[in-house]
UniProtKB/TrEMBL annotation:
This is C2HC zinc finger plants domain-containing protein. It comes from Salvia divinorum. It comes from the Eukaryota. InterPro entries: Znf-C2HC_3 (IPR056971). Residues 130-174 form the C2HC zinc finger plants domain. Residues 1-30 are annotated as: Disordered.
């Protein structure tokens, strides 16, 4: 081996790896997996959920391969669907109560035809408008999100999206973007 080769090997050994090793199996380093999970928690706290998910998937891949990742994601999807089904009835009831409260709070006014100018925009969604949330009995979620300003309705797909996740929604989730 020449002196140049030895110097290059030392430089590679000293340089931090750009990505964690992608070995699969029980011989994997448990500290590497632990470090990935710690990094995922830090990313969540920094408001970077997509990057945190990538770190968790890498840890799962190191521990159990692609099969473990597939099984984990399937299980998470199943838990999410079960949670949605369980809360659907309660959300529908809350939505009905909210509609009653809104109907009582809004004074009855005669309908005067009004031409909206291009500068005017409705501040709140129309409570009678049909949306995915309304159709699934979760209209109150949308009304709450608009009232506190934490979310917006995507004009392309109609999804309710947190303002913090706007770029990620358009980049990864919006099917019409």
């Amino acid at each position: 081996m020449s002196g140049g080769d030895a110097d290059m090997m030392e430089a590679e050994a000293e340089a931090p790896p750009s990505a964690p090793p992608r070995e699969v199996g029980p011989a994997s380093d448990p500290n590497g997996i632990r470090n990935l999970l710690v990094m995922a928690r830090k990313l969540i706290n920094q408001g970077k959920p997509s990057q945190a998910l990538e770190a968790v998937i890498m840890a799962m891949k190191i521990q159990g391969g692609d099969i473990a990742v597939s099984q984990g994601l399937s299980r998470a999807q199943e838990l999410y669907r079960n949670k949605i089904q369980a809360t659907s009835a309660a959300d529908e009831l809350a939505s009905l109560f909210a509609e009653c409260a809104i109907a009582e709070a809004i004074p009855l006014q005669p309908q005067i035809p009004h031409q909206m100018t291009s500068e005017e925009e409705p501040i709140e969604p129309d409570p009678q408008e049909r949306s995915i949330l309304a159709e699934t009995g979760r209209r109150q979620v949308m009304l709450d999100a608009f009232s506190d300003g934490s979310s917006f309705v995507c004009l392309q797909c109609g999804g309710l999206v947190s303002n913090q996740r706007k770029e990620e929604h358009y980049a990864f989730w919006c099917y019409k973007a």
